[in-house]
Structures are given as structure tokens and as C-alpha cells.
Write a structure and sequence with these properties.
The chain has helices spanning 39-52, 69-79, 89-96, 102-110, 137-151; strands at residues 2-7, 10-16, 21-26, 87-88, 123-124. By secondary structure, it is an alpha+beta fold. Helix 2 crosses helix 3 (89-96) and helix 3 crosses helix 4 (102-110). The mean pLDDT is 93.
Length: 153
């Protein structure tokens, strides 16, 4: 089941399997033929709205991203990064338990199917550069700015 959600960053497409959110991504294509009112998708839309106005720092929805066991472990590490905080890819690899896996961890971040809720935008390059973001660097900058402004209040 699919729902299109309007955000300050543009339209996002959310997908549920009926038990959990399995995908949340940015999209340019909107087809209202596939616009579900499933309770999980409605709750996601509500929580995203709260997040974007600074009233929500964490999400309550069940997540079930599709990926390899390695990717899922990396994504579980991402969920431990606090709202308004950033870490480097090298630090993420250490938290993950394999300091030598920086490149593999970064690649897994790039395959994260649930944007924002699994906060790969909170990982930056060593030296302070933003690194990559599948939604585009301008979206990553927006999310980091939003979180840093709201967490400093």
C-alpha cells in the first residue's frame, strides 16, 4: 500500500506491507490511483508533519526495510544516532562494530530504503563535509539544519 506525502522537501512516497513501513523515499511522480489510507501510512504522514515543524524528534512506527543482514545491521546503527547529532562514516563503522568497514557502511547507508526515519542524513564525511545523500545534498543540508535548530532550543 502506497501513500504520497507532501513535505517541505517535496513529495515523498511511503509504502507499507500492512505491518510496518517498508519504504519512504523522495519522488517526482505522483499517482493518486495508488493513494492508500492505511492507518500506518496516515500515522507516518502525521509524524512526518510533526517532525518538519520541530515537534517530533523520533518516530513511533514499526519499520521493516528490505535489505541484506549486513545492511539491516548498519541501518539499526543509524537509528541510534540522536536527533540533532551527526557522526562520521568512520564513527558509524566503529559503532557498528567494524572500524575497517567504513566504505561498506557508507554503501549500506546509500541503500537505506526508509529516508528520515532511518536517519542516514545524520552521517557526514570525516573533516565535516556532508558526504552523499540519495535524496540529494540540498535535502541532507535541510534536514541537518532543521534538526540542529530545533535541538538547540
Amino acid at each position: 500500500m502506497i501513500r504520497y506525502i507532501n513535505t517541505p522537501l517535496g513529495t515523498m512516497i511511503a509504502v507499507t506491507d500492512g505491518e510496518a513501513i517498508i519504504s519512504l523515499d523522495f519522488t517526482d511522480e505522483v499517482s493518486m490511483n495508488d493513494h492508500s489510507d492505511h492507518p500506518l501510512l496516515l500515522q507516518l504522514e502525521k509524524e512526518l508533519g510533526e517532525y518538519f515543524v520541530g515537534k517530533r524528534a523520533s518516530f513511533s512506527l514499526p519499520l521493516n526495510p528490505t535489505g541484506t543482514p549486513f545492511q539491516k545491521s548498519v541501518w539499526n546503527t543509524l537509528i541510534t544516532i540522536a536527533y540533532g547529532q551527526t557522526i562520521t562514516y568512520a564513527e558509524e563503522a566503529k559503532r557498528f562494530g567494524n572500524p575497517k568497514a567504513t566504505r561498506a557502511v557508507a554503501n549500506a547507508n546509500g541503500r537505506n530504503p526508509i529516508a528520515i526515519l532511518i536517519p542516514c542524513h545524520r552521517v557526514i564525511a570525516t573533516g565535516g563535509g556532508l558526504g552523499g545523500y540519495s535524496g540529494g545534498i540540498e535535502k541532507k543540508e535541510f534536514l541537518l539544519r532543521l534538526e540542529s535548530e530545533k535541538s538547540s532550543h
